[in-house]
Specification:
about 0% strand; mainly alpha; homodimer; DNA-binding
DNA sequence: TAAATAATGAACACCATGTTCAGTAACTAA
DNA sequence: TTAGTTACTGAACATGGTGTTCATTATTTA
């Protein structure tokens, strides 16, 4: 990629992230972005179709990283499949936590919808692979949707509760995961890796 | 209230509902609304601050009705508290089902955020009153948030799955309600009033 | 019937959007 | 080093929705 293009893109994302920490997404104008990034108006439009496009690209890149296959992830088979799933979720939380500054802002307006949509799409892939227990007679995809939505909502909650670590949040979520509530009775002690405070 | 005002408001809401069935909320302009409602531009702005205001008022009125105290609701004490709660939820679903046409549309864009916020606010009041079982050591308000979010998401799902009745949806939701999963084991048969297909 | 209240609609200023284009700067490959 | 390509610039412009103003007309109320 041309060095000039990369420079421009980087400047735009940097400006966008900064602006998100200062005001809500709907209040940010294209003018704000190009002023902050110090680029020409036409340059912005040669890179992005519009402000919404920029948001989409940002969200996609966040989750691409958060759910990236990192070395050794697939090899977590000294643990059970369940532990591998929990590790994957915790890994994602670490990434999201790094961007708390502007993620909080994105979540607190219309743009939250966009963010959550991307988030849930990735989570559906993750939980779709999970072959853990599902209560008697309940469709698996309905159970998956429950895990997806509730994990996403848990993260939304976490963004305003910085005192919890990623491990703690995954542990708390896990206790609400459908199927786990019942199996926990049969195998006590399996529910959480780290106790909640 | 002045008959003229009432007439204008009604025309605006009617036009808004119709337009929502035709296109997404972001694509609807104030011009669309006043053309359809056949009122003057300044008239619209004397009733509503902006398009967003109209959406807020519409959402509030929907849930005011859906969660209204209707006669005999408080007297459901021939059933348990649990049955009263389920009846309240089912009642709300009947109301929401009546407006499926435009509710579906509201939910499928930015405006869904607004709708869900109002919905969850009302649900927090409802589930906050619920004193049912909560798993060992989990904060009650966290459990409440789970019921709130998952019921709201279930409705979102229901909007695209017309084949289920309100009773069936409440029953399905109930099986995922935290606390219920465990108590169901102790008291089998209490989980659902109507079996799912 | 008079006073108060509401609706009208054209006209207006405003502002963000997205496009165009001629000119300049930076890369690339021969 | 040079020629050719690609990217950035920034001013200018057309567009379109927004929200306000105000003199006029219609309706309600007392």
């Amino acid at each position: 990629m041309d060095r000039r293009q990369a420079k421009t893109r980087k400047a735009v994302f940097q400006a966008f992230a900064e602006l998100l920490e200062e005001k809500g997404y709907p209040d940010i104008t294209v003018q704000d972005i190009i002023d902050r990034a110090d680029i020409g108006r036409s340059t912005f439009y040669s890179h992005f179709e519009a402000k919404e496009d920029l948001l989409n690209v940002l969200c996609e890149s966040i989750f691409e990283h958060a759910f990236s296959k990192h070395p050794g992830k697939e090899d977590t088979h000294d643990f059970s499949e369940k532990e591998g799933l929990k590790a994957e979720l915790t890994h994602a939380l670490y990434h999201l936590g790094e961007h708390r500054g502007y993620v909080k802002s994105i979540l607190s307006s219309e743009s939250g919808d966009v963010f959550m949509r991307y988030f849930k799409n990735h989570l559906r892939e993750v939980f779709g692979r999970d072959s853990g227990p599902v209560p008697d007679g309940i469709p698996r995809d309905y159970a998956v949707e429950h895990s997806v939505c509730w994990f996403a909502e848990t993260v939304r909650w976490w963004m305003d509760n910085e005192e919890y670590s990623p491990e703690e949040v995954t542990g708390l979520f896990w206790r609400y995961k459908v199927g786990e509530a019942e199996s926990r009775r049969a195998h006590p002690g399996n529910g959480m890796k780290n106790g909640m405070p």
